Amino acid sequence: MQKSTQELVNLGEMLPLMEEFYTIQGEGYHKGTAAYFIRIGGCDVGCHWCDVKESWNAELHPPTHTDFIVNTALKYSDVVVVTGGEPLTWDMTLLTKGLREGGAKTHIETSGAYSLSGEWDWICLSPKKVKLPVAEIYPMADELKCIVYNKSDFAFAEEQASKVSEDCILYLQPEWSVREKMIPLIVDYVMKNPKWKVSLQTHKYLNIP
């Protein structure tokens, strides 16, 4: 019997693809390097300051065969960043399998709100207060990126940093709409707490996707 589209999505054989593009990574550890981005639709975390709210409703983004997504990405880069939305809403197993078999490094940007699926070369964990990460993802994170919207976010960042491994790289990143207000506070905080690094959304300064 032929599988329905929803069954294929549930199995990870299709994914709600919002957009895909080749650009420069703008944030965190790999900033400044070329990568192919795959943005998957669907997110119920619901950060009020999210700059891609159009990604939240998965039904707005067409289910696309995972093999097609993989083959397109491999034409552009051997580094592929999967983001969202919240990509772990869906099963990432087949997507990462195809990418890695094609010789690509797989990176994910996730809130960690759902269990990890897929095989990843780099995990950027960006926790959100409204829906905290599942416990098992903390020790797997290569990079912790905490968004600073107000002063209370420093305490939240420290709480999250206490749960990741010693090797995890720690970043504080100002939320874009309040960057002018928060950057001086972040700079001061990092100078007093040098285990942290500053991350900026450099792609926005460069005016690229």
Automatic annotation (TrEMBL):
<feature type="binding site">
    <location>
        <position position="83"/>
    </location>
    <ligand>
        <name>substrate</name>
    </ligand>
</feature>
<comment type="similarity">
    <text>Belongs to the radical SAM superfamily. 7-carboxy-7-deazaguanine synthase family.</text>
</comment>
<keyword id="KW-0411">Iron-sulfur</keyword>
<keyword id="KW-0479">Metal-binding</keyword>
<feature type="binding site">
    <location>
        <position position="50"/>
    </location>
    <ligand>
        <name>[4Fe-4S] cluster</name>
    </ligand>
</feature>
<comment type="pathway">
    <text>Purine metabolism; 7-cyano-7-deazaguanine biosynthesis.</text>
</comment>
<feature type="binding site">
    <location>
        <begin position="126"/>
        <end position="128"/>
    </location>
    <ligand>
        <name>S-adenosyl-L-methionine</name>
    </ligand>
</feature>
<feature type="binding site">
    <location>
        <position position="43"/>
    </location>
    <ligand>
        <name>[4Fe-4S] cluster</name>
    </ligand>
</feature>
<keyword id="KW-0949">S-adenosyl-L-methionine</keyword>
<dbReference type="InterPro" id="IPR058240">
    <property type="entry name" value="rSAM_sf"/>
</dbReference>
<keyword id="KW-0004">4Fe-4S</keyword>
<keyword id="KW-0671">Queuosine biosynthesis</keyword>
<keyword id="KW-0456">Lyase</keyword>
<protein>
    <recommendedName>
        <fullName>7-carboxy-7-deazaguanine synthase</fullName>
        <ecNumber>4.3.99.3</ecNumber>
    </recommendedName>
</protein>
<dbReference type="GO" id="GO:0016840">
    <property type="term" value="F:carbon-nitrogen lyase activity"/>
</dbReference>
<comment type="subunit">
    <text>Homodimer.</text>
</comment>
<dbReference type="InterPro" id="IPR013785">
    <property type="entry name" value="Aldolase_TIM"/>
</dbReference>
<feature type="binding site">
    <location>
        <begin position="24"/>
        <end position="26"/>
    </location>
    <ligand>
        <name>substrate</name>
    </ligand>
</feature>
<feature type="binding site">
    <location>
        <position position="39"/>
    </location>
    <ligand>
        <name>substrate</name>
    </ligand>
</feature>
<dbReference type="InterPro" id="IPR007197">
    <property type="entry name" value="rSAM"/>
</dbReference>
<dbReference type="InterPro" id="IPR024924">
    <property type="entry name" value="7-CO-7-deazaguanine_synth-like"/>
</dbReference>
<dbReference type="GO" id="GO:0008616">
    <property type="term" value="P:tRNA queuosine(34) biosynthetic process"/>
</dbReference>
<comment type="function">
    <text>Catalyzes the complex heterocyclic radical-mediated conversion of 6-carboxy-5,6,7,8-tetrahydropterin (CPH4) to 7-carboxy-7-deazaguanine (CDG), a step common to the biosynthetic pathways of all 7-deazapurine-containing compounds.</text>
</comment>
<dbReference type="GO" id="GO:0051539">
    <property type="term" value="F:4 iron, 4 sulfur cluster binding"/>
</dbReference>
<feature type="binding site">
    <location>
        <position position="47"/>
    </location>
    <ligand>
        <name>[4Fe-4S] cluster</name>
    </ligand>
</feature>
<dbReference type="GO" id="GO:0000287">
    <property type="term" value="F:magnesium ion binding"/>
</dbReference>
<keyword id="KW-0460">Magnesium</keyword>
<keyword id="KW-0408">Iron</keyword>
<feature type="binding site">
    <location>
        <begin position="49"/>
        <end position="51"/>
    </location>
    <ligand>
        <name>S-adenosyl-L-methionine</name>
    </ligand>
</feature>
<dbReference type="GO" id="GO:1904047">
    <property type="term" value="F:S-adenosyl-L-methionine binding"/>
</dbReference>
<feature type="binding site">
    <location>
        <position position="85"/>
    </location>
    <ligand>
        <name>S-adenosyl-L-methionine</name>
    </ligand>
</feature>
<feature type="binding site">
    <location>
        <position position="209"/>
    </location>
    <ligand>
        <name>substrate</name>
    </ligand>
</feature>
